[in-house]
Amino acid sequence: METSRATHALAKASAALVSETDIAGFLATLLASSTDVLQIDAGGILVEDHDRLDLLAASSHAAVELELHQSQLEEGPCVDAHVSGRPVRAHGPDVVTRWPRFGQLMLDSGFSSVHASPLRWHGVALGAMGMFRHTGTMFTPEEETVAQAFADLATLLIVQTDTIDLGVVRQRVQEVLAARIVIEQAKGVLAWNHGVEMAEAYRLLLRRAADEGATLTATARAVIDEAQRRHVT
Hints:
alpha+beta
């Protein structure tokens, strides 16, 4: 995989997210880019449709058949990636061991390896992107990262299709700026309490947020609230 090609493809796809885009066209382009960058022979996207997965987009007719087989049989890499919310990979005889019906259909269609990346949104998998190769070559760790990036971009477009009023956008910007002020205030509190520089105070804030599993803004508000309570008492 050439890093420059991956960078160009992902940058092009990201740019489409901030302009008016034909969703179907975007997904087709995204799949075409993924097949080129990751050297795969077929790719498709399955998404939730009530109580089943349905085909949203595919790079070729072969990809359509592979994805529809998974949907109809309710077994396969995309099904597992959707259920688990984690990437799924298999090659060679292992595909039949894991998915007896779909795996055999996949091998019979001339594909020997597969990688499926979940379409993740706020901790929930909405579907999965399947990527198939004729060869048994498995994805490298770098390729897995790029594959997930393509899947994440597809998810972003799917969930953010509504046109947002510019006034709403500006309001969100103001909310982010307000949160930033809270973070700066919390850094000041920690710097004073611990007798450290602001850079170290920021590291302390980040560490606390990670340790508590909280957002940075929520942690900053907690730091300020604690300081205010101590001042009152």
